[in-house]
Structure formats: C-alpha cells, structure tokens
UniProtKB/TrEMBL annotation:
Signal peptide limits: none
Organism for this UniProt entry: Corallococcus llansteffanensis
Organism domain of life: Bacteria
Gene3D superfamilies associated with the record: Nucleoside Triphosphate Pyrophosphohydrolase, Ribonuclease Z/Hydroxyacylglutathione hydrolase-like, Winged helix-like DNA-binding domain superfamily/Winged helix DNA-binding domain
Protein name per Swiss-Prot or TrEMBL: MBL fold metallo-hydrolase
Pfam families in alphabetical order: Lactamase_B (PF00753), WHD_BLACT (PF17778)
Lineage, uppermost ranks: Bacteria, Pseudomonadati, Myxococcota, Myxococcia, Myxococcales
Domain Nudix hydrolase, chain residue ranges per copy: 18-211
Amino acid sequence: MSELLPGMGLLPSHTPAEPRASSVVILYRRARDGVGVEVFWVKRERALAFAGGFYAFPGGKLDRDDADVPVQGVQGEEAALRSAAARELFEEAGVLVAEGARSLSPEALAEARNAQLAGTVKWSGWLASQGLSLRAEDLKPAGRWITPPWAPVRFDTRFYLVELPEGASASIIAGELSEGAWIRPADALSRWSDGTALLHPPAQHALQVLAEFTDDSDARARLSTPPYCPGYVAQRIEFQRGVRVVALETPTLPPATHTNAYVLGTGDLLVVDPGSSDVKQYAKLLSLVAGLKAEGMRPVAVVLTHHHGDHVGGALAVKERLGIPLWCHARTADRLDFPVERLLEDGEVLELGGPLPQRWRVLHTPGHAQGHLCLVDFRSKAAVVGDMVASVGSIVIDPPEGNMVDYLTQLRRLRDWPVTTLYPAHGSPVPDGPGKLDEYLRHRAQREAIILEAVPATGATLAEVVATAYADTPPLLHPVAERSALATLEKLVAEGRVREESFSWFRLGGGAGA
C-alpha cells in the first residue's frame, strides 16, 4: 500500500463489517497419563480468506438449516448456535455429540459426514431420519468473542466446551483444514511461543485456561471471562508470543483502511509504525503499552519501516508520550519533519531482553521507499515487513521514491532469507511467507509482460499503456496503477526493452504495434 496520492480526495471513514453468527467447539479428552487434558486443534488451510494458516478449534458460521434443529433445553438463537456447534464438530472432526449417536456404526457416521460435507443431505433431516437429538447439556457455553471492528470479515462466535464422548474418535478430512491432532495445551502454547503455531486471541486464551485444567466448571468459568476483552472484543492480539498488533485507522490506499502498529518483545518493547495522527487511534496503542508497562515491561524505542504518512502519523506523539527515542533508516529520517535519535542500517541486530529474549535483524529493503526496513526475528524467522507485501490490497511502487528493480530484488532477498510468517502493515499475518513472496514475484512478472505487450513500437503515452495493461482494474484506480506502471516501464528502459521520448514509450525489438 501507500499513502494517498494527490488528487484522490478524502476517503470515507471506516464502517465496520457486520459480524456473522458462528459457533466453535473446544473438544478435549483426559490425558492418557491421567495428568491434565488434551485438546483437538485444527490448522486452517492457508488459502482460506479468514484465518488461513492459523491453528484453531472446529467451528464455523451458522447455516439456515441450523435453526430447524430442535435442541433439548434451549430455544431460538441458543438452539441454532448449539446446532451449528454440533454440526461443525461432526463435519470438521468427525465427532457426533447427539443422543443416540452410539447406535450408529463407524461406517454410517463416515458416510453421513461425507454427505454433510458434500451438501447432499440436510443436517436437520439427517438427524431426524436417524432418530438423533441434540441436548444443550452436551454443549456447554465457554465464552463469546467478536472479531475486532477493523477486520474485513467479522464473526460473533459462541464457544462450547465438549468432552470427547466415550467410544468416539476425532480426525479431519483434508479440504478447509490441513491438520488435526490431539495436543496438550502447554505444548500448543510452546509452539505459539516459538512462532510455529499462530493463534487468534480466543484460541490462545482457551489453551492457557486448559493448560491449568482442574474440572469442567472451573474451566468454563475462566473461558467465559477472558481479560482485556470488553464487549467480547479482544484488546490484546498476540499472534505469536511477543508480536502484538494494534490496527490503527489511517488515510491509506483502499481497500485497506488501517495500518498495523506492532509492539514487539516480552520485556523490552519496540513500537513499530504508529501510523495514525488521530489521538483516538494512537490512544489504543498507548493503552496497550501502558498495560504492558504495568506488568513490568519497558518500551525502548519507536521504529519506523519507512516515511509514508500512514506509517508515521502518530510517531512523534507516541515517542513523546512514552519518552522514548525514534529509530529509522537515514533515507526515512531525511524525509521527516521531526528529530530521529538513531539511524538503523542493514544488518544491525536489535536485542530485546525479557522472559523470551528477542533479537530482530534489520534488513534495508528499498523499492517501495528508499529507506524501507524490515525486521526479522532470529528465533522464529517471523518478519515485520511494512509495505513489502500486504494481505489486503496491493503494493504501489511510485517513482522516483519507488524503484521496481530494487523492490523485486528485496522480495527475492526476503524469500531466500528465509522468512516464515510475514507481519504486513495492512491486513492479517501471512503464515506462508515464502509462498506469498513467490506469489508477488509471479504477479509482478505477469504484469510486466502485460505492460510490455501494451507498449507499441509506434509509441504510447503512460495513460494509454495503463488503459490497455490495466483494463481489469477499475478506472478510479488508474492513477494508482500509473505509478506502478511507470516503475515497470523504467525497469524495462534500464533493460533495453523499451525507450522513452517526449513522455511516450516505445517498444524495442519489434512486437505489438510494429
């Protein structure tokens, strides 16, 4: 993404998406050694638009048919939510929680599960045909969570705690899920700490509660009262230990509406890209840091990935409020109108003390901006990547600040580092970092080929090239497309495949328009 380009005007304020009702089941069983419990967690297929690549529990949104299923002990919405929970548990884990379920053979259950996933039977009709009934007491309430307002897709999710029924077994069918396994909560949290299992706040909280399991009632009471969660919305989002995100509404290019500020560390803290100048926005960031300070943590610096307004809008205010220095690259510092205390260079290591010490390597990654930096964690290889990639929208390369050759070079450098999870400035984390970087490289190569094809030997203006090469892009965004097209044309000129004369571009070596 980028800051707004001249002439784009003011964008409307962000309107949060309406949350969709959904249900999730925390399925557990007593550990085989008699100490504590194990939970059945699943990994969502990385290509999924919502929480792709994250670990979670079986669940999903309500279907219309869920309201047609009677549930003993509850009615209305509560019945539909429990019906959805039971259905999702059956579809995703193969566990049927229903009165009469033990009368069905494993083969009959497998056949019904496949039919349910294929959509060839209705949940309500199948339950009735088998003489099965749902009971509220089998699906015990264990909390409610609502996706934060900044997310493009939101859910209002009820959680239910279910102990694995006697004789049942859990497994996944590949599709929307890529993994499913029983795991001790402490082991799952260890993977979260290592950065090898990304978690959303509800799953993180559930694992922390169940790691100290004593009995069902105590677990449900603690599951239903998570900290830092007013109105069921998480105020602390820590996808892996020591990597927290606060999404701040900023004037950035659509479809993005927010810029992610990151708070890194478990003792010493770095505050990365406080991008909003709106006090109501950066106050959310300051509130998080204040809470962490109350727990004994210490902010040491504000770090900027680059100088664009949607990344630095609140930098001065945040650094002054916290009384900490500002660090960035020299090519960022000379574009700011406030002082910088430290200039960061490629290869430096930022050491953060704490219960889980962190070491972040600084990578100078010009292309989107001359002073652009990324931070890569030594331990997990996770990378805070600013505007190198985005999981919502695309990245604009805007000359003369932007340079396509440099940008592509740095995409390859990050891919080959190698990195794991990417934490972009816009959108959700990207668990498969190398895959996303390869995707960007392929996309740029494809777009370059289209732009080259749109340049005739007889010449064309930039606007004419864009009209042809970006025919798949809404005309409203053509001013933005022009900037990246210009960066590509400059690359083609440097390679001797195109020449520029009097604001027109000419393809060399024959081809289209020759």
